[in-house]
TrEMBL record:
InterPro entries: Ald_DH/histidinol_DH, Ald_DH_C, Ald_DH_CS_CYS, Ald_DH_N, Aldehyde_DH_dom, MeMal-semiAld_DH. Residues 19-476 form the Aldehyde dehydrogenase domain. It comes from Nocardia sputorum. NCBIfam families: MMSDH. It comes from the Bacteria. This is methylmalonate-semialdehyde dehydrogenase (CoA acylating).
Length: 496
């Protein structure tokens, strides 16, 4: 059984003690390794390594930094299937989906390759007589990334390509459930000739997270995970004086108006509801059927969902297992709670016959109709293959439902009415909106982030927000010709 530990000073580091946690293949239920959970001393060692590497990396030319990024991009593109296999082995998502995850992360690396352009400042000549002003963007120092289990490669890649390109050094604390992709990425950086200490990995749990939040050497924290932990990370990190962006959980609604193409909407609901077994922060978990479309729509969704093959992600299944047995059972409990609260079970995944080992953490696609807003299947983020259908009479009812929800990550509207679409994207209180697009994940050159309890802080991930988050601006005022010899004057300087 393999031991999965840290990456420090450009090489593997076993750590000096601390506890361990099992790592499981969700498709077999077999424990395949154990991950070392860092103690405070090892977390400090990772932070110190990042601090030591910072001055030289900050002063490394943009040309050199960009060359390393391009090399990393080439290596990642060549070997993305290798990384995808590691993701499937510890997360469970099917291989095609894991390759998709890596590809979306790769897009952020490609965006960061344009860092010389992204860091360009401004210059103003003669702001006052023979006085010029320019602005520059400078890196912050060592920064921390704390990531969730559901995208062990893509989510860290939302942040570290831009952080590193901008001249920061990074300490990544991945999820303890699927820790191996982080070390694979660290080795790839070394192969791309990133100097030792610029990218460091510390495996761990709350002990490591608390040290990253409290240690004054760490200047910024990018967190992605569930809402309670996001709130905690934001509060503790900002109390320690850091810049924090903390992306939290979600409950994404897909509204279907009666004029929509119902086949398109049904395909979208199934793909977005059951892709990655519903373990995506942009998964659709609630279909809001408006007016007369509901019966036909539910029929079409159920027909399609019944054809999904659940099984081992390496064997060509459509949908893999859930990440742990505990999570599988937790999601199954929600289905039972919905049923006993009066929801109609249209499709029940609890008895699924999966194409995989009997000890895999299987749960098939499940559809609950006539879900009411006070049922736990509606109020809570389930994070599994469970699609709830809520029926409402009008567009206004659907909008009110979404805007009253405490989460605001993603949403979608299906319609052929341009006016309704225009109203929706203008009025809905959600950070990422799709019109006839069920998972509206923005491209790397736009920013990714939700509203309300789906994000704490004011910077979204990647795009312009990412560059702003990982840099601070400095404005420099200069006078070289005819320096003033006006003698002493304690008045506030005025421009002439
Ligand atoms: P999680 O909150 O359990 O864990 C996220 C990270 O926090 C992990 O690295 C974990 O080790 C650490 N952590 C867990 N408990 C902690 C504690 N008590 N103190 C300090 N650190 C702690 O989330 P998860 O189960 O790994 O991921 C699923 C969640 O992430 C879902 O809620 C999902 O919606 C959310 N998510 C959100 C986005 C987004 O962009 N908004 C993207 C992906 C996932």
């Amino acid at each position: 059984m393999q031991t999965i530990a840290h990456w420090l000073d450009g090489k593997a580091f076993a750590g000096t003690g601390g506890t361990t946690a099992p790592v499981t293949n969700p498709a077999t239920g077999v424990v395949t390794g154990e991950v070392t959970l860092a103690n405070v001393a090892d977390t400090r060692a990772a932070i110190d390594s990042a601090a030591k590497a910072f001055p030289a990396w900050r002063d490394t030319s943009l040309t050199r930094r960009t060359q390393i990024l391009f090399r990393f991009r080439e290596l990642l593109n060549e070997r993305k299937e290798e990384l995808a296999r590691l993701i499937t082995a510890e997360h469970g998502k099917v291989l095609a989906d894991a390759i998709g995850e890596v590809s979306r992360g790769l897009e952020v690396v490609e965006f960061a390759c344009g860092i010389p352009h992204l860091l360009q400042g401004g210059y103003t000549e003669n702001a006052s007589t023979k006085v010029d002003i320019f602005s520059i963007r400078q890196p912050l120092g060592p920064v921390a990334i704390i990531s969730p289990f559901n995208f062990p490669a893509m989510v860290p890649m939302w942040f570290f390509p831009i952080a590193i390109a901008a001249g920061n050094t990074v300490v990544l604390k991945p999820s303890e459930k699927d820790p191996s992709p982080s070390l694979w990425l660290a080795r790839l950086w070394a192969e791309a000739e990133l100097p030792a200490g610029v990218f460091t990995v510390v495996q761990g749990d709350q002990v490591a997270v608390d040290e990253l939040l409290d240690n004054p050497v760490v200047k910024a924290v990018s967190f992605v995970g569930s809402t309670p932990i996001a709130r905690y990370v934001y509060q503790r990190g900002t109390a320690a004086g850091k810049r924090v962006q903390a992306l939290g959980g979600a409950k994404n609604h897909m509204v279907v108006l009666p004029d929509a193409d119902l086949d398109l909407a049904a395909d979208a609901a199934v793909n977005a509801g059951f892709g990655s077994a519903g373990e995506r922060c942009m998964a659709i978990s609630v279909v809001v059927a408006v007016g007369g479309a509901a019966d036909e729509l539910v029929g079409k969704i159920a027909e399609r969902a019944a054809t999904i093959k659940t099984g081992d992600g390496t064997r060509g299944a459509d949908m893999g297992p859930l990440v742990t047995r505990a999570h599988r059972d937790h999601v199954a409990d929600y289905i039972a709670a919905g049923e006993s609260a009066g929801a109609t079970v249209i499709l029940d995944g609890r008895g699924v016959e999966a194409d995989g080992a009997t000890d895999g953490f299987w749960l098939g696609p499940t559809i609950l109709d006539n879900v009411a807003t006070d049922m736990s299947v509606y109020t809570d983020e389930i994070f599994g293959p469970v699609l709830s259908v809520v029926r409402v009479d009008t567009y206004d009812d659907a909008l009110a439902l979404i805007n009253a929800n405490p989460y605001g990550n993603g949403t979608a509207l299906f319609t052929n009415d341009g006016g309704a679409a225009r109203r929706f994207h203008n009025e809905v209180e959600v950070g990422m909106v799709g019109i006839n697009v069920p998972i509206p994940v923005p491209m790397s050159y736009y920013s990714f982030g939700g509203w309300k309890n789906s994000l704490f802080g004011d910077a979204h991930a990647h795009g312009a927000d990412g560059v702003r988050f990982f840099t601070r601006t400095k404005a420099v005022t200069t006078r070289w010709l005819d320096p003033s010899h006006g003698g002493l004057n304690l008045g506030f300087p005025q421009n002439r």
